[in-house]
Design a protein that fits this description.
Shape: globular
CATH architecture: 3-Layer(aba) Sandwich
Helix content: 40-55%
Number of strands: 10
CATH class: Alpha Beta
Radius of gyration: 19 Å
Distance between the termini: 40 Å
CATH superfamily: Flavodoxin domain
Strand content: 15-25%
Length: about 210
């Protein structure tokens, strides 16, 4: 009996050490989530206070300890779904670059304003980039971000929320924007399931072996 108890105790100890090592391994690579998320009227989920992509970004931060860089624009505030889709199509057709404001939050929810954005990005090894799919790719405001900041040399994981478009062309678009980055295969999730299927995001993150 004593031998059996000792064996069980040893097994539990090993399991706990492995869990701690896995957590340590994940935190060795500092992560950032860059995203644009649209609240208000959204297809399939109605009028929402928190955008679908923001929810996924929060899951990623919870699972990895990642800080957040939110791409914020007020251009679409208060717009109904149909006019918004028409505006988004026009922006894509004209290859527009809408203005945005960065909103940076650490993993503990603290908002920060770095004095040097380049140095801010330099501290991260892994960057998740996410947004909804508007007309086959990310919203044009995200391309403003791509033109503004250099993420070459980073490991990048694109992700999207959508209602049938999957990843669209976002992976190839990110690779085109940052040809010297290591852009990994992307992850997509339906916008209407982000509130009820956190497990899908967890499975994706665990499979990355960060």
């Amino acid at each position: 009996m004593r031998k059996i108890l000792f064996t069980l105790l040893a097994a539990l100890t090993i399991t706990g050490c492995n869990a701690q090592n896995n957590k340590a391994q994940m935190t060795n690579n500092k992560c950032l989530v860059v995203f644009f998320s649209h609240a208000g009227e959204n297809y399939s989920v109605g009028n929402i206070k928190v955008g679908n992509t923001k929810i996924v970004a929060d899951y990623i931060s919870e699972l990895t300890g990642a800080d957040q860089f939110e791409i914020v624009t007020h251009k679409y505030d208060g717009m109904a779904y149909t006019p918004l889709t028409e505006l988004a199509q026009e922006e894509a057709r004209n290859d527009e670059r809408p203005a945005f404001e960065p909103q940076i939050n650490t993993s503990n929810g603290e908002a920060i304003k770095p004095s040097n954005i380049k140095e801010f990005f330099d501290q991260y090894d892994i960057i998740f980039i996410g947004g909804p799919i508007w007309w086959g790719t990310y919203p044009q405001v995200m391309f403003t971000f791509f033109d503004t900041y250099d993420l070459n040399g980073k490991t990048i994981y694109p992700f999207t929320t959508h209602e049938g478009s999957g990843l669209g062309s976002v992976v190839s678009d990110v690779r085109k924007a940052f040809p010297k980055a290591d852009v990994k295969p992307g992850f997509s999730i339906y916008g209407h399931e982000v509130r009820t299927n956190k497990a899908k995001v967890e499975k994706w993150i665990k499979g990355l072996n960060l």
